[in-house]
Amino acid sequence: MKVAIIGGGLAGSLLAVYMARRNYEVHVFEKRPDSRKVGYEGGRSINLALSHRGIRALQDLNIANEILPLAIPMRGRMIHDLQGNTTFLPYGKDETEYINSISRGGLNEALMNIAERHPKVKFYFECPCLDVDFEQTIAYFKEFNFQADVIFATDGAGSVVRQKMVQKGFCQDNTDFLAHGYKELEIPAGLNGEFLLDKHSLHIWARDSFMLIALPNLNGSFTVTLFLQNEGDESFASLNTPHKARGFFQKYFPDALALMPDFEEDFFRNPVGLLGTLKSYPWKAHRTLLLGDAAHAIVPFYGQGMNASFEDCYLLDKLIDKYNQDWEKIFEVYQSTRKKDTDAIADLALENFIEMRDKVNDDEFQKMRKLEYLLENTYADYHSKYSMVTFHPEIPYSVAKILGNRQNEYLLSLCQQCKDIHEISLQEVYQNLKNLQMQVAE
Ligand SMILES: Cc1cc2nc3c(=O)[nH]c(=O)nc-3n(C[C@H](O)[C@H](O)[C@H](O)COP(=O)(O)OP(=O)(O)OC[C@H]3O[C@@H](n4cnc5c(N)ncnc54)[C@H](O)[C@@H]3O)c2cc1C
């Protein structure tokens, strides 16, 4: 079996490890140079949250013990208000449930190193794929063509392979861009390498229509991301001088600004990234399959894009066992079973944007989170929406979305009606939640 993987990013590198485990010949073609030699993305530290769906794939491959030491556990959201006060809202029901901040470059490089340990895996850098002959399973590059038995396209949201599939009538796609973009900044480590904010939290400065977040890095720094409208009165377009950018941060994020000595330099050097939801279908053209962001890129507000892409690889691997290398069948079953779940996480991620930027400050929302916490710690089979999405890979995204939203509607209405959640009968609430669960299962 000769497998071509187009794109050696997060999904492509993990998939290479999966394919190597089957002892296939694996050829990974990556557009960029080898970051292990030239550094990642100009040396900026960019991190992302790894959670149980991603970790399940790493455990399945027996590599979680190599990857998790590169990560920092984040046990909850630390909400920063305008006055600089903080409130901690735990993500999980106890110490065992947390998400992990990990360097994007570090993770990618670790996965490439693990894949390359296998003698049948070869990475080709600075090798952008230009086209694919889907009938013949041939990938085209500038100086050569590559004949494969199967091709996996993990070339990210702007996938060339997907564009070719669309042009040739195999696939349809659509991208909805948000009016918001993002920019990465940095809170460096303190003078002795110490963390200047709580190390085990995902920090959020929620300001209704925009927000700032910060995730810790192993070296004591935090990667800070500003999500803001692209156009308008207070927008990336309007913050066009150092004075205006500083004034904006001074007004809305003074405590964070105080920790950013290189603020102006970072702000004007780092680009504004676009945010969008890409939906496409079908994902298969004969023996070529789109996976990860190439098939379903989402906005980052649930921290699930990479986790969903790792879950793609995990689920595909199980189907290869089940259908014994009948690739057209495997790809058909994969896409028809997976699509509803990637659509669901795309919707959940958009919903969470609203929750993160303008609900986390609400009294009712914070009350609901406390009620959920009580319920989760009293009844082992109750899981909040966040918990289903983040900590329970056995619950498909599509179920988490429907059940989670019904639960939230019910719990929020209870919290609006009471002054103190201790007035509420937990047993009665639990029974009603069980009924909801049964209705959704039907
Ligand atoms: C601001 C932000 C924050 C995020 N935070 C999180 C988070 O906290 N948790 C989470 O789970 N997800 C997060 N995500 C989403 C996550 O980054 C993506 O879902 C993930 O990177 C998808 O992996 P991928 O391998 O499919 O695509 P990518 O990581 O984009 O990799 C694609 C690779 O293909 C290569 N390539 C492109 N074109 C070609 C070509 N023609 N030929 C060969 N190679 C090519 C690229 O160079 C790249 O290496 C975030 C995304 C953003 C934008």
Please give a quick description of this structure.
The chain is built from 16 helices and 19 strands. It has helices spanning 10-21, 35-38, 52-60, 64-67, 104-116, 160-167, 242-252, 254-257, 263-269, 293-296, 305-322, 327-359, 363-378, 385-391, 397-417, 426-441, and strands at 2-6, 25-29, 47-50, 72-74, 76-80, 86-90, 99-103, 121-124, 131-133, 138-140, 145-147, 150-153, 172-187, 201-207, 210-216, 222-229, 273-281, 284-285, 288-290.
Q: Can you describe this structure?
A:
Helix content is 42%, strand content 23%. The two termini are 42 Å apart. The protein has a seven-stranded mixed sheet with strand order 6-5-14-15-16-13-17. The protein has a six-stranded mixed sheet with strand order 8-2-1-12-19-18, sandwiched between helices. The chain has three domains: 2-72 and 103-175 and 276-353, FAD/NAD(P)-binding domain; 177-274, D-Amino Acid Oxidase, Chain A, domain 2, CATH 3.30.9; 362-441, no CATH class. The longest helix is centred in the last third of the chain and has 33 residues, at 327-359. With 442 residues, it is an alpha/beta fold.
Oligomeric assembly:
single chain
Query: Would you tell me the overall average pLDDT?
Result: 95
Instruction: Write the CATH fold name of the largest domain.
Output: FAD/NAD(P)-binding domain
Please state the overall shape, judged from the principal axes of the Cα atoms: globular
Distance between the termini: 42 Å
Radius of gyration of CA atoms, rounded to a whole number: 22 Å
Under CATH, the homologous superfamily of the largest domain reads FAD/NAD(P)-binding domain
